[in-house]
Amino acid sequence: MASHNSKKHPRADAQSEEDYNQVKNALKHPSTKRAKQIDSDTPFDQLEELLVKTRKDVKTRNVLHWFRSKDLRQEDNRGLHAASQKAKKSKSNLITMYLFTPKDMEWHGTSPARSDFILRNLRILKEQLEQKNIPLAIITAEERGNKTEKVMQFVKENDVSHIYADMEYEVDELRRDIDLGKKVLDESDVSLDVLHDQTVVIPGTLTTGSGGPHKVFTPYHKAWLAETKQNAELLDLVPPPEANDTDVAKQFEKLFSSSIPELPESKQYASKEEQDRLRELWPAGNDAGMKRLDHFLNDKIEDYKAHRSEPAKDATSRMSAYHNSGIVSMRAVLAKTKQFNGGKHFDEGDVGVAAWVREIVFREFYRQLTIITPHTTMNLPQNLKFDFVQWEDDVDGWKKWCEGRTGVPFVDAGMRQINTEAYMHNRLRMNVASYLRANMLIDYRLGERYFAEHLVDWDLNNNTQGWEPSYTIFNPVTQAQKCDPHGDYIRKWVPELAGLKGKEIFAPHERLSKEDFEKLGYPYPHVDYAQSAQRAKQRYKQDLANADP
Ligand SMILES: Cc1cc2nc3c(=O)[nH]c(=O)nc-3n(C[C@H](O)[C@H](O)[C@H](O)COP(=O)(O)OP(=O)(O)OC[C@H]3O[C@@H](n4cnc5c(N)ncnc54)[C@H](O)[C@@H]3O)c2cc1C
Question: Annotated binding residue at 457?
Answer without folding.
Answer: yes
